[in-house]
Amino acid sequence: MLQARYSSTRLPGKVLMPLLGEPMLYRQIERIQRATLIDRLIVATSRDTADDRLAAICREKGIDCFRGDLNDVLDRFYQAAVSDAPDHVVRLTGDCPLTDPELIDSIIRFHLEGGYDYSSNTIQPTFPDGLDVEVCRFSALRRAWQEATLPSQREHVTPFIHQQPERFRLGSFVDDCDRSWLRWTVDEPDDFELVAKIYGALYPRNPRFTTAEIMALVEVSPELATLNIHHGRNEGYALSLRKDARLSG
Fold first, then answer.
1. Do residues 211 and 179 make contact, with C-beta atoms less than 8 angstroms apart?
2. Which of 3.30.1360.120, 3.90.550.10, 3.40.50.720, 3.40.50.700 would CATH assign to domain 2-248?
3. Nearest of 97, 93, 92 to residue 194 by alpha carbon
4. Which residue, 25, 86, 171, 202, has most beta carbons within 10 Å?
């Protein structure tokens, strides 16, 4: 499931910004579709009129699209999946156009072989911000949908699950080398500038360029590593946690 909306507060319309002639979201979908262990890809967006353009592009490209609540993203995510009643759901977000399909498959395999309720490479971040992958049992997602009440739990889908290790079996997928300081997500104009530079350098030669190729490019162009690292990781989630605190206070 790919979670996306047009009305980003920090960089409005980012998912449809042109990246080598196609919307950024579609460039990400190209990469996701190379993962071999995802049975069905659904873009989960909102019913807000601002997302009409996003839904239209999904129709044009033949991508399944579900439209739900703008702010209760947990409900949107659950409703998008419930008709299929899957055993497991993969959560990706539409601001990560450097998504790694091999990493997606590795985390799905790790999740299934470990028998986990929830698995991700975000519990202990070691991968660049923007390569995040979450996998959870649909039964755990349903429990979160039924019981979660805090803004952070409704706006970000999975905190209800990964905040309760005593209740859910959690799997943490980590890399041998910590590159979590690298920022490959798109929330700010300079984030997009970085991604555009990477695509411009690599995509024309190889549309299926890998994370290893990105790292090789960063090594010879070190300014790409520092262009946008002054932005904090998970700033949107931090904002939701402040909403939680106001409610409890």
1. no
2. 3.90.550.10
3. 97
4. 25
